[in-house]
Amino acid sequence: MSSPVTSTKPGSALSLYERMGERTTQPFALHVLDMLGPIKGSFVIAVAAGTGGLAVVAATDRDAQVLATDLNPAMIERTQERLRPFSLCQAEIMDFQSLTVADATADIAMSSFSVLAYQHAARGREISSHRIEGWASSGA
Fold first, then answer.
1. Residue 13, CB-side half-sphere exposure with 13 Å CA sphere
2. pTM for this one?
């Protein structure tokens, strides 16, 4: 029997997050994806992916190879379910402040609002810059 946190049944915490959290953050993620232009075949890391809303769109609508990461096992389990139809996509438990992905392996790293959880924004940019080849910082 699933606990209320890990259940995707209506009314569970995970179901609520998927319905409400994605509804709140997804428009921003879609806008960023649109600004990127075509990403077909790109390797995308979805950092702090939650239930996988951004990862699923990148895989389905944009035909990208996706690695979705999150610290919460229930979120990763749900993201794995959603990404199952895409053989080149996966979801793994990882702390976004210490990703276990080799430097310069991703084409794109994306996150919907998890940057707000960084205690030090400069450290977040530094971590991200090592994962993406050709990183360009806005200096913010």
1. 9
2. 0.75
Q: pLDDT tens digits, residue range 63-89?
A: 999 999 998 999 999 999 999 999 999
Report the C-alpha gap between 127 and 91 in whole angstroms: 19
> Which one, of 41, 6, 28, 21, lies nearest residue 111 by Cα?
28
pLDDT digit string, tens, across residues 83-134: 999 999 999 999 887 888 888 889 998 887 666 666 665 655 555 554 444 4
Query: What is each CA distance from 57 to 53, 134, 139, in whole angstroms?
Result: 6, 24, 28
